[in-house]
Predict the 3D structure of the following.
Amino acid sequence: MLSGKYELVVGLEIHAQLQTLSKAFCGDDTTFGMLPNTQVSPISLGHPGTLPVHNIKAVEYAVMLGLALNCEIRRENQYARKNYFYADLPKGYQISQDNTPICNGGYVAVNLEDGTVKNINLTRIHMEEDSGKSMHDQDLEDTLVDYNRAGVPLVEIVTEPEIRSAEEAFQFINEIRKLVRYLGICDGNMEEGSLRCDANVSIRLAGSNTFGTKVEVKNMNSMSNVKRAIAYEAQRQADLLEAGESFESETRGFNPLDGSTFNMRTKELVKDYRYFPEPDLPPLLITEDWKASIKSKMPMLPKEVENILSSKMGLAKYDVQLISDDKKTAEYYLAITEHTNNYKAAANWVMGAVKSYLNEQAMSIEQLSISPKRLAELINLVDEGKLSNTSAAQNVFPMLANEKTRSVLDIAKSLNVIQTGDVDFIGDLITATLAKYPEKVLEYKNGKTNLLGLFVGEVMRGSQGKADPKIVNQELIKKLEN
Ligand code: ADP
Ligand code: MG
């Protein structure tokens, strides 16, 4: 933790790989993990005479993201060549957007630990293509290059330097990851590199309104590593300042083994990419009509789901976060609530029995063979007093995975776990119980009403767990107060 003397300032640059079937400017396949250099046509390789074309899907994905983040969408989009030399960049330039990014402005609402929400403003989102992948550790002498990734569409999201803690940065990425997954435009997988984050980190004296020298930290392949890297880097800078040393702007890498950052290159003050308009691609017009049609195709956003969960379903903040965190889980939950009015119970099931079952079986909710409708039936049986929560979760629920045709009630019956609210059956057990404990009954009548639990327990035991405890309670009180 940085001491109160200094304030942390962070701006993030997030690259998200768009999940299109083909690359940004040609028809090459984008499937991840294929044999190296099998998805490379002469266009990916930038051979002379080849021409790029726009991938409309990629553009629509970028627009969707911008609309979801309240950005201004640019009408006339130009591409630019960003020139630099590197082995994994076969053309010698990257097609990117320079001063005409597709999105300007916008913000991400981030939930903070203290329960407040902070809007973090975006500078821009622009479209570009990915580079190939250099592998320095596969061969003893040479660096190997895989160009399958070269030309895969990316969006780069750039924030204003408004992030003030490692936790805020973590939550910011979490929101972005959640959003791109909801939109279905990126799988959000940081470990496989489909979502990548660079953190620009500086510190300044608390209360100051000028910025300190920033250091860019790269290569964190998980959200928690981003958090660790920022915390480490802030402390490193504070230690330097405390020792009376200054430092230059530089690019640093992150070592996940010990959580430290290390120098990669000290930045020249002005990077010269010699940007110029890409002459091979015509400007791309995003008309109001096109924007409207993209908007109409947009799926439900995380914030909308959160709103439904809290206002319509009345769930507590914690439940809302857990259920909305994953789109498929949210969809499953909402589907249950179409068949039961007990929204809170549905939430408890999703976060409890369903979640532990999925963990045990090592499966995702999409693989769950218990339909939301059947789970709702189970919830309703509990509500009707026909089943205890425990036997519903422990006995009936696991059976539902294999039994798809018999009704939930029939399954419960065959398991012999149906509870009864039958007043005659329960009445007999009550009479027997009260006869067994005459002194306790007297004590109860003299005011020791917490003995009720003892009687309920005895009746339940007598019924072998099959009496509906609600009815047992009611009937017992009736008898005892008479
Ligand atoms: P560069 O010219 O190095 O690309 P930019 O000004 O374009 O720098 O900003 C890149 C990223 O760095 C943005 O996310 C921005 O918010 C962030 N940033 C800029 N200045 C600072 C700073 N002093 N401390 C932390 N982050 C910063
Ligand atoms: Mg910049």
About this structure: The two ends are 65 Å apart (CA to CA). Residues 228 and 259 are 6 Å apart (CA to CA).
